[in-house]
Specification:
The complex is a heterodimer of chains A (415) and B (129). With 415 residues, chain A is an all-alpha fold. Chain A has helices spanning 7-32, 35-56, 62-82, 88-98, 113-120, 127-137, 143-149, 154-170, 183-202, 209-229, 233-246, 272-287, 293-306, 315-328, 332-346, 348-360, 368-380, 384-397, 401-414. In chain B, 36% of the residues lie in helices and 31% in strands. The chains are: A mainly alpha (415), B alpha+beta (129).
Chain lengths: 415, 129
Amino acid sequence: MSEPPTVDIRTHVDAVYRAEAGRILATLIRLLGDFDVAEDAMQDAFNAALRRWPVEGFPVNPRAWLISAGRFKAIDAMRRRARFAASQHDIADTLHDVEPAAAVIDDELPDDRLKLIFTCCHPALASDARAALTLREMCGLTTEEIARAFLTSAPTIAQRIVRAKAKIRDERIPYQVPSGGELPERIGAVLAVIYLLFNEGYSASSGPLLTRVELSAEAIRLGRVMLELLPEPEVTGLLALMLLHESRRAARVSAEGDLVLLEQQDRSAWNHAFIREGIVLVERALATRRFGPYTLQAAIAAVHAEAPTPEATDWRQICALYAALLAMQPSPVVELNQAAAVAMHEGPAAGLALIDALFARGELRDYHLAHAARADLHRRLGRREEARTAYKQAHALAKSEPEQRYLEKRLRELG
Amino acid sequence: MKYICLGYIDPNKFASATEPEMNAMMDSCCAYDDQLRANGHFKGGEALQPPNTAMTLRYANGKVVVTDGPFAETKEQLGGIMILEARDLNHAVDLISKHPGAKFGPWEIRPAADLSEIVRQSEARRRAR
């Protein structure tokens, strides 16, 4: 029996796990051609590290050591199983001839995480499976943690992951970064998953808050990895957008747990490091002239972030950015936001006309925020009766308690 | 995390098996269990004798009533239990789906419940008495 690993080595191995597990797994999937085999191989490799590093010393390149050990363990396990299951023969035989194990010990190992995230977010997979698979394979979250974050049961998430992996295997979804004409659309699919994760964590209105907040942190981490490996304008824009939203987290909820509107937030509570980083990224994305909707939304958030007070907001620029965003990606909700900006820039009547035009087209009539915005504009025009009616409509449509409380407060203030 | 895996067997699937077939099945199961042990996943387990060897205890009308045999007859019978150490539920599913025993009946995988907090509270209550 060897000595149990010392605390020091365990801390060391844990640190390597946190820093490198994503990259190691991504490379093992490429080398072994299967998610489950690679996951097992990685666990075995880390177990081997706990046994051998105290004796042999800490390797110069722990990542290469772990990849090599994982690959060796997987092939060994397949050979042993192949004696009992004929179906495994082929796999073990193919692996045998792929490349000598020594070739893996190489400082120039490519970073395979981009292949991994493009596979996890492949359009052939069910959309609700993409987020779960990304969190598990890229971020190393357990099935149980993902289930808690999405307020669902572990077997539900486990089933999604099992099905997604089976689909990758059965349909032979290639493990690669898409090329050429396919790339922009596939980047869009990856960014959509990252932004969904961010919003799950950001708009957490129920459930254990802490786990949900971590989803936003994971999304930002994924955004950084994407930017490092694929510095495309919209990748830059999405990271900027997430940082600029995240910068307001501490100010957007009151001590009572109510949402605080942008204009009423304590701007000194904003995270200015995130704002500075977000603004640099937005400017870089805009300068490429190949930006898209994420960059434009980030630019709008940046204009807000740059204003020391709500009154100092550059509404003219925000209106221009909304017009550009709508030209690129028409959406009634964006039109509503544009109406609010126009009301600030040109006056409440101009904003009201835009909302009424939306309603006349049959859009957003069941959306409580549209009625609330309309109510605010009537109030600012001094039309108390119209404002009251609109607040009541908004109240009837609002679903969350904090929003209902907010509207009730507004109604009382009307007198 | 610990998962309790309940392995069921369908006796009909064994009825027509020849001795070499049975041996091959046992060998593959034992070999896979060895592999689980070697990798630290197998934290304990036992095979069970058939249901007709069992007793069932129930509490009725203020006393314990003992009856022969299992509580209910089903086509699939509990054949064994395994305590599996896995990273998460998907890892447990992956490890058990490779188990050759899965060909002879379903496995049920359930996470072990962590009762340490309940036990701690109970100890505090009993001390206070």
